Amino acid sequence: MVSRVIPVDNFDLVIFGGTGDLARRKILPGLFRRFLAGQMPADSRVIGAARSDLDDDGYRALIKDAIAEFGGPEKEDAEKLSAFLAQLAYVQIDAMGEGGWGALAKLMRKDVVRAFYFSVGPSLFGALAERLHKHKIADRNSRIVVEKPFGRDLASAQALNETLASHFKETQIYRIDHYLGKETVQNLMAVRFGNVLFEPLWNNHYVDHIEITVAETVGVGGRGAYYDKSGAMRDMVQNHLMQLLCLIAMEPPSRYGPDEVRDEKLKVIRALDPIDAHHIVRGQYDAKGEEPSYREDVDNAKSFTESFIALKCGISNWRWAGVPFYLRTGKKMKSRVSSIDVVFKDLGHTIFEGDHSRHRNILSIRLQPNEGMDLQVTIKEPGPGGMRLIDVPLDMTFADALGDDAEDSADAYERLIMDVIRGNQTLFMRGDEVEAAWAWTDPLIEGWEARNDVPKTYEQGSAGPEDAMALMHRDGRKWREIKG
Ligand code: BG6
């Protein structure tokens, strides 16, 4: 199979924070991959804008190093790399002052797509938006891209939305949640709405419960200052896990269009029930041998912030009433696994005498690693000895089925940046979605803060605190194993 690369229009992409971590790790290496794939038109430019005193060549050298460090195997192609670097430029800019804005204005071209990536802290969003207008750098078709954290609660998210709305229309604002750029996350919609098989069963008549797990092996070392003010709820659940939950639970949109999809996601968030305190388990990883504890990693011996969270929630609508959704995510866990498991109900009646085991169909969608799906089905155990039943997975690992095309799949960031240039907002969060997610999250956080809730410790390399197991055991259920 040959991948089809759909070219985009010529663009000028300005990256504020162009020398920062995200630009070096993700944005520029991703753009280089799109360049290699033939998707970046030769007349397009990427303009780094930051405080550092650099010229174009200095910036190109910095990005060359970044691609050497963070790029994939393709970074070896020296000739192509030089051609890509030639499309980069740099402007030294003072986000809060006036320095550099005139120079940036002069660089901008007419008749190309103008996009501005705010790869900076949210406190600078207002200043940047204002100056882009004052210096007539942004026009009515320009797009801005903003990153999470998009606020830390409802009030701050509303304030950010208002700031951006005073300079840009909602159709110009692209709020990135990089989970929406992941191949398999988009596949969730393809699987649900592109097949006749699943949708008739996708409701409380047939589904017993749904699990969403995003387990990471990394700790918070290096990002301690940010993370300790945030915790797993704000860092992962309010955005990434919430988006997964929406895609799993939403009603079919009338078409695959930006507002149609986002309207349906919003309805899911608004239908989420409040959660009882005893349906939330928060954890912090402990020290293990030479490996520091969470508290040591964030340099805060009294921290009550969670590096793990598990919770049980429900959605009050016709489709899902009565079906529990169990979500968990954490750092320093057993292995890096993101998966969604749709566990179907038991058969009402078995015709097979003597078979007392519980056989269940489970659809497991693996987001990473080894993207794919498997469907657990019950079959006869081979061989003589009567009708004994066993459960086996019908496995579809996308890399096996799609060969090189699966390997070729673009990283989340590069895919999303190309969508910005195309003007397609389907995979970006709308302002009302973000606010609804905070409106659900805020009371939960306020609840445990008011209770002075102390997170349970858990062993590094485990599946989280014991209490997280109990959360499901109490309901007569068990988490799917996090395979190491
Ligand atoms: C980020 C979080 O948004 O997502 C990080 O801030 C987390 O804490 C990361 O590690 C996980 O992303 P991925 O793509 O590695 O699953």
List keywords for this structure.
35% helix, six-stranded parallel beta sheet, 16 helices, 484 residues, alpha/beta, nine-stranded mixed beta sheet, binds 6-O-phosphono-beta-D-glucopyranose
What's the helix and strand layout?
Blueprint: E1 11-16, H1 21-36, E2 45-50, H2 56-70, H3 78-85, E3 88-92, H4 101-107, E4 113-118, H5 125-134, E5 143-146, H6 154-165, E6 173-175, H7 183-194, E7 207-215, H8 224-228, H9 231-249, H10 258-270, E8 280-285, H11 294-297, E9 308-313, E10 325-330, E11 337-344, E12 362-368, E13 372-380, E14 389-397, H12 398-402, H13 404-407, H14 412-422, H15 431-450, E15 456-458, H16 466-473
Parallel strand pairs: 1-2, 1-4, 2-3, 4-5, 5-6, 7-10, 8-15
Antiparallel strand pairs: 7-11, 8-9, 9-10, 11-12, 12-13, 13-14
Helix pairs in contact: 1-2, 1-14, 6-15, 9-10, 9-15, 10-15
Bound molecules: 6-O-phosphono-beta-D-glucopyranose.
Brief synopsis:
The protein is of the alpha/beta class and 484 residues long. It has 16 helices and 15 strands.
Structure, described:
- With 484 residues, the chain is an alpha/beta fold.
- The protein has 16 helices and 15 strands.
- It has helices at 21-36, 56-70, 78-85, 101-107, 125-134, 154-165, 183-194, 224-228, 231-249, 258-270, 294-297, 398-402, 404-407, 412-422, 431-450, 466-473, and strands at residues 11-16, 45-50, 88-92, 113-118, 143-146, 173-175, 207-215, 280-285, 308-313, 325-330, 337-344, 362-368, 372-380, 389-397, 456-458.
- A 9-stranded mixed sheet has the order 14-13-12-11-7-10-9-8-15, sandwiched between helices. The protein has a 6-stranded parallel sheet with strand order 3-2-1-4-5-6.
- α5 (125-134) links the parallel β4 and β5.
- It is globular, with a radius of gyration of 24 Å.
- The mean pLDDT is 92.
- 6-O-phosphono-beta-D-glucopyranose binds next to loops.
